[in-house]
Amino acid sequence: MTHLFDPLTLRGVTLRNRIGVSPMCQYSSTDGLANDWHLVHLGARAVGGAGLIIMEDTAVLPEGRITLADNGLWSDDHIAPLGRVTSFLKAHGAVPGIQIGYAGRKGSTTIPWEGGRPQGEGRSLRAEEGAWETLAPSAEAFGGERVAVPRAMTQDDIARVQAAFAQAARRADAAGFDLLELHGGWGYIFQQFYSPVANHRTDGYGGGFAQRARFTVETVRAVRQVWPDRKPLAFRMAATDWIDGGWTPEEAVELARLLKGEGVDLVDVISAAVAPQARVPWGPLFQVPFSERIRREAGVATTAVGFITEASEAQAIVADGKADLVLLARAMLRDPHWPVHAAEALGVGDRITFPNQYEHWLSGRPGSRPLGDRHA
Ligand SMILES: Cc1cc2nc3c(=O)[nH]c(=O)nc-3n(C[C@H](O)[C@H](O)[C@H](O)COP(=O)(O)O)c2cc1C
Prior knowledge:
The protein is of the alpha/beta class.
């Protein structure tokens, strides 16, 4: 039976355990450049024992940003600051991953704590506030408070965005990332194409399943050509739109099969709003059944993510074969040492290795080492 603290090998990369930090936008970059915040924020979670750390959604083109403060990989200037982060994560035993994306019609918003909106519901900016033109499969606004109407992409736009994903992948490799994830969820560009709710194109990129999936399949193919063979490629995918007449779990399984054939090693299974009318039944472990189904029916490794907080829940997901690893977002914000506490709760505290600076004082059972003369 697989244990949460068993290693996991994907291609030539081995995670020390099955616990990952889910990608989380920090809205803290300037001109897309990572900085000390990213080093400390992600570095703390490497020290805290996570096996995999997936850096936030990182824009492949400036126009593909959600906000002006998004992280970026649209130029070679972004490589060096990211390299500083990956070196630190590797030095502390975590595999550095990064998620790359393009917001499409959900771009051009204020950052959440300035617009007072929760993540994913930022207000659309007006031009005088620095708004920019957004591009999407169809010229239809997201809806709700996001009133800005995107321009429908031409086939040249599609090719340009796909090429930008490949360029960003090359830069992610140069920056030292060992796992790359394409952001195919949360109603961003991939979901805008594969969901019938957001895609009303009549050319070869819209219509039936194969046409709606085409943007995704072609982009994955372009990325896999430049992303090294020994490094795993992940795709974050919505298993459903939670909208009648929208993207279905059956289509998600089918897309996962296609992507596996294109060299995707891990499907990061979520479910998400591609439009505001979605009715998402948020709650503990609510996405785990989708992960289990995609893993079983598409025969591909999956993550389980969403409202996972307890060590026993994470252990059961992995042991029962519902996913190959768990990702945590908010629980990791609360507790960067979540893996340490999980190991202790599961009775395997000895499977955590602290950095040398801590190990001497903390290894063994909590409180088992007196300070005594070691402190001198
Ligand atoms: C601050 C914050 C930022 C997020 N940014 C991203 C992101 O960049 N990409 C993404 O796919 N999901 C993002 N998410 C969603 C998380 O990755 C995760 O799927 C979601 O929060 C559910 O997991 P949790 O219940 O463990 O928080 C974000 C979540 C939070 C809380």
